[in-house]
Amino acid sequence: MRYTEHKSKLLSLKDYYLSLKTEDGPVQVLKKVNISINEQETIGLVGESGCGKSMTALSMMGLLSNKIIANHQGELLWRGKDLSNASNKRWRELRGKEMAMIFQEPMTALNPVLTIHEQLDEVLKEHSSLGNKDRRENIADLMAKVGLRDVENKLEWYPHQFSGGMRQRVMIAMALICEPDLLIADEPTTALDVTTQAQILRLIKNLQKERKMALLFISHDLDVVGFLADRVVIMYAGEVVEDLPVEQLENPAHPYTIALQQARPQPGKADVDFEPIPGTLPQLGSILIGCRFRDRCSKATKECKTDPPWRDHNDKHRVRCWHPKI
Q: What is the pLDDT of residue 270?
């Protein structure tokens, strides 16, 4: 799937700020984040570990407890209606049924003392009026569709009896059991071997196309995102710095995205050395003024000590930088 025009927005974050409580006081983790996801569109959300990708996803799903949120501002819209202060009841109605999430490590996301059948059945009980027999048939059918064999026996297994790849397939089945309109996948292949990663990626892509879902795929791997996405959103230190169609990913404009491209190994090109990005991400709680990437950027000038503007680089490509690549 590649970038196409989509008319109807499913979910949008608009000028979204998030601060979390710590022993040392509130710490800002997201700053003025703007992301929109349209029907049947695939967004790749990319950045180094600690850039705010998972916090963005958890905010979208309403999974951050008020006990840890110090402050949040901006709009979180689902089909045009603001969810910023939605009740727990409203979130329970949405999660699982209209939007769902695949987590990074299934062993910590699955309940170790419940069978796989009990865990998937819990989702259907919450969001459907099906009887016991119909629910079990639906679960078995979906388990088979995600590539698990001998399904009837495996329904009574516990998570520890599955391999890593099988647990991830169970997590995909759990996310899709109520046919959501939006699937968020938070680095779902990180803990898997290369062969299993490829299988899971193909499975997600095929199921998304078959079920006509929107997909937000979170990753630090530009090659994976290039395989899946229509559009790519680049995050750095809690901010979105570039938003571009996947076809333009090989020609980014922001110095950080360019650095990410140069830092990746290139299979089959032994004579091409990858270049690590110098320095490290700013620590949470740091007072950051201006461009957050400037201390690691070779193009930084005095101008970069003030917040950079958004610029339209070209058609459907925006970048937040004083000195974008032209």
A: 60
pTM listed for this prediction: 0.91
pLDDT at 169 > cutoff 50:
yes
Each residue of 312-322: pLDDT tens digit?
Answer: 987 789 999 99
Calpha distance 107→153 (Å, rounded): 20
143 and 123 belong to one structural domain = yes
- Non-local CB neighbours of 321 within 8 Å, separated by 6+ positions: 241, 242, 253, 254, 255, 291, 308, 311
How many residues comprise the chain? Answer: 326
Count of structural domains, the chain: 2
| Whether residue 301 sits in one domain with residue 185 | yes
Position 103 pLDDT exceeds 80 = yes
Rounded CA gap, 142 and 177, in Å? Answer: 7
- β pairing state of 214-219 and 9-20: unpaired
List, in order, residues 6 or more apart from 217 with CB less than 8 Å away.
Answer: 42, 43, 44, 45, 185, 204, 224, 225, 228, 229
The answer to whether 227 and 38 have CB atoms below 8 angstroms apart is: no
